[in-house]
């Protein structure tokens, strides 16, 4: 059996969060400069903290370039069409 994950110390969390925010800002600048499109997917169980994580990481980027979109929960039917849940792809220079 695997051990339960330990909680990160607040100071270490904030330092890592700042580092990730800086990396996302660099990605944002690069995507805009190159005219690219990027899709990032956060996947996890309900109430796993995805929303808070996404908000924390994206709080320092431009909302004109970084767009957050929530996909509806998928049904348990493995034959359900994935196209039904597909969102429009980002525009050029959008993440």
Note the main attributes of this structure:
95 residues; 0% strand; mainly alpha; flat; 36% helix
Please provide a brief summary of the model.
With 95 residues, the protein is mainly alpha-helical. It is 36% helix and 0% strand. It starts with 9 loop residues before the first helix and ends in a 37-residue tail after the last helix.
Note down, in words, how this protein is organized.
The protein is mainly α. The protein has a domain at 35-71 and 89-95. It is 36% helix and 0% strand. The protein is built from two helices and no strands. The protein has helices spanning 10-34, 50-58. It is flat and about 45 Å long. The chain starts with 9 loop residues before the first helix and ends in a 37-residue tail after the last helix. The model has no long low-confidence stretch (mean pLDDT 78).
Provide the structure class.
Answer: mainly alpha
What is the mean predicted local confidence, pLDDT?
78
Low-confidence runs (pLDDT<50, min 5 residues)? none
Give the overall silhouette. flat
CA-to-CA gap between the ends? 38 Å
List the helices and strands and how they pair.
Elements: H1 10-34, H2 50-58
């Amino acid at each position: 059996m695997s051990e339960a994950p330990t909680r990160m110390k607040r100071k270490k969390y904030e330092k890592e969060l700042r580092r990730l925010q800086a990396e996302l800002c660099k990605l944002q600048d690069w995507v805009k400069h190159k005219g690219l499109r990027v899709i990032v997917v956060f996947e996890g169980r309900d109430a796993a903290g995805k929303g808070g994580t996404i908000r924390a990481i994206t709080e320092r980027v431009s909302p004109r370039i970084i767009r957050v979109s929530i996909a509806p929960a998928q049904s348990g039917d493995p034959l359900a069409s994935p196209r039904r849940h597909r969102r429009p792809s980002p525009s050029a220079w959008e993440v």
